[in-house]
Amino acid sequence: MTESMENIVDQHYEEEFEFPLWKLIKQCAEEKDISYSEASELVVPEYVKGIRYGDIEYEDAVIAAREKEMAEKRAKDNIVMEEKQAGKQLKEV
Amino acid sequence: MALDKIADKVIDTDLLVVGGGTGGCPMAAKAAEQGLKVTIVEKSNTKRSGNVGHGIDTYGIFAHGISVIDAVRLWQKKDMQGVNGPGRWVNSNIDYVLFKQGFWALDELERLGVPMKWDNGKYYWTPHLLRAPGVKAGLRVHWQNVKPIMTKMVKDRGVEILNRVMVLDLLTKNNRVTGATAVNTRTGEFIVIKAKAVALAAGFLCRCFEPETPTSYKYKFRYHYCPASISGDGFAIAYRAGAKLANMDINAWGFRIRDDATISFGNFPNNDGTPSKVFNWKGEEPPSYYYTKIAGYDEAEHIGMAPFYQSLNHLTDDYQKRLELNYNDEWLLAFKTAEDRKFNPRTHWWEFGKNKPLQFMMPQGVATDEHFRSSVDGLYAVGDNAAGVGGAYGACISGLVVGDTVSSYISEHGEPDIDEAQVESQKQKALAPLAVEDGAEFMDVECAIRYICERYVGNMRSEGMMREGVRRLNTLRREFANKIEAKNPHYLMRAHEVRNIMDLAELHIHACLNRKETRGGFVRVDYPEMDPAWNQKVTLQRMENGKSVLEIGEMPDLKQEYIDAEEGEK
Amino acid sequence: MAVVKINYSNCIGCKKCYDLCPMDVFTWDEEEKRPVVSYEEECWMCGICWMDCPKRTIDIRLPASNW
After folding, report:
1. Per residue, what are the HEC states of C16-39?
2. In angstroms, rounded to a whole number, what is the distance separating the alpha carbons of residues B96 and B370?
3. Which listed residue, of B254, B323, B392, B535, carries a Cα 20 to 30 Å from B34's Cα?
4. Handedness of CA B201, B207, B209, B213 (dihedral sign)
């Protein structure tokens, strides 16, 4: 039985969304009747305040968590590749 | 003056800067501050031209927590996008200057009004890169509008800017550069520029390969990683003037990307310590071999594992906001095209493909010493235009160094001696495409060249394929080089871009044929081993008496005087 | 489908798009005092005209081949 093509549609590409920063830039540009690049210069400094830039503890934690994930993946990859090598000579290019 | 009869316009200047980008503008500003008369000749408009035309989010590689000498050593070992391999590709004395002058350049840029610090008055060092001493530390910068700022910076200092003018060839006499010939791409004026020194800051070359994003029969300039206006002009005119180009065999490669405008092409994920995840279509995270190695990707396709996708779904809300900032600083349009396509980085993945040749950059370009002097007297090269000096930081540092030092060359060497016969000859070549009737379209010839570089050179190189590539390129040149037609000055610019791309493609194939080994990202399937005879060697190519000359040069060691100087400072 | 679309009813003829386009996609109609998209095939959709237009009157749309 063949699968209906309808089931392969990726619904994500049908959901509208807005970037919060872009929404603010557009609003500012329309209110002040200026270009998007000029509006961005007005909006961004405020937006930056809502981001935890320079919060070393927070940033370190995010980085460490990702590094841990990557280390775990590397370890798994090594096992898979070793098994592969045992079964077949790889041409490393 | 006979020149007035040959040219529509004659310009007399101290320093001619070819290219008003992030290398040329700081250089021009600095040189003008030294009292020089400076002229920038820019193919488009300095306010939005070049690689940082609509912005960039990252600046720099700085040495941090280690000495400059250790930074140089570390850099030599570093794998730059997999292109480099063991042995040195570039001049370590250049690396020394770039690390040594990194902070001086930062201060200069701040002083010149280029925004390096954030609104809180501080630099923001990308934290991930600072967690261990090394050579990666970079600055997060808000450079969306850096080009209008740099344009004001040079105008305030009395620099003359010629926008919409393309330099077509350099003028030389007795191996000294004396100026250039150029054409206005809108009015068609033929312009002669007399200059006591010339600095090339025209970027690198991307249009000798297919764009990373698939294109239709129509929009063939669609490049993700660099603006399509970059066509190797600064390489080609140097080459034809007899200056040596280095490493024309060692091009950059990367993966083909879909959904390109839906993500910022900034370095955000890697630099901020939260690299993207890679999934296959089943949602598994396969070993990186399958998507980083060409052979791996081929295998993946054969076993039904492809396609592969990158994802930033795992970012915290705070880091998704940082990603938005990167869109803003690097490519504002990316917001709109992402929303138009309903591509949400919080929930979507983007597909990427096999590695392919990308562009000529980083180790490639005009061979210079650490003062950014080429092998032609009075001719400098900076930024992506010079071998081993890539990136916005490389452009700024080298540009500022030349701006700071070129006045001593100029005061020693005085007025250039223009060869009028050379001007006449260049003028004929310059305007010839305008007289061609029923000729070839520039894009058709360019695509033919790109196809040769992709298929007959590519990433997995071999003798037979490359020889066929040479044969095809020779045929193209013979049949079409003089037949590219230009209906107006705009198309004249395009015809000359293709002329440059053709010259450089030729150098590329010859250099690749000549290197019979595999080293890092340079792969010869017929010579799969590394040949130690090539360690610390560099391919150098120049034009001499109308012919292409290839020699193998020695990459110099880091000078003892620099090592001693650093010891002395300890 | 035009990838670069100018809404002329809002265009004030400031010439920014014509001056700034890195690929020289526009020409200038001196009579009408407005830009014309003359080399559309050479547009690589960088968005500079779109972001710098003071009236936000230029639309950039990716062609089908880039979706």
Report:
1. HHHHHCCCCCEEEECCCCEEEECC
2. 8
3. B392
4. positive
Residues of A in contact with B147 (CB under 8 A): none
Nearest to C22 among B49, B186, B261 (CB): B49
Q: Is B132 on the interface with A (CB under 8 A)?
A: no
Whether residue C52 and residue A33 make contact (CB cut-off 8 A), yes or no, is no
For A36, which residue in chain B has the nearest alpha carbon? Answer: B332
Distance from CA of A86 to the nearest CA of B (A): 16
Q: Per-residue pLDDT tens for B382-400?
A: 999 999 998 899 999 999 9
C56 touches chain A (CB under 8 A): yes
- Does the pTM surpass 0.80? The reply is yes
**Number of Cβ within a 10 Å radius of residue B435:** 10
Residue B399 is encoded by which pair of tokens?
Answer: 């540009």
Return the closest-CA partner of residue B183 out of B394, B470, B391, B493.
B493
Strand-strand pairing, B190-200 and B379-381: parallel
The whole-angstrom separation of Cα B62 and Cα B79 is 16
Residue B64 CA to residue B137 CA, distance in Å, equals 7
- Residues B142-185 pLDDT 10s: 999 999 999 999 999 999 999 999 999 999 999 999 999 999 99
Q: For chain B, what percentages of helix, strand and coil (3-state, to nearest 5) are there?
A: 40, 20, 40
Residue B455 DSSP label: I
Question: For the complex shown, is ipTM > 0.90?
Answer: yes
Q: What DSSP string runs through B335-375?
A: HHHHHHTT--TTT-EEEEEEEEEEEB-TT-EE---TT-B-S
CA distance C9 to chain B (A): 22
Which residues in chain B touch residue C46, judged by CB atoms under 8 angstroms apart?
Answer: 53-54, 227, 331, 333
B202-226 confidence digits (pLDDT tens): 999 989 998 877 777 788 888 766 7
> What are B125's two structure tokens?
């060092």
Question: Which chain B residues contact residue C47 at CB under 8 A?
Answer: 54, 331-333, 336
| C chain contacts of residue A37, beta-carbon cutoff 8 Å | 51-52
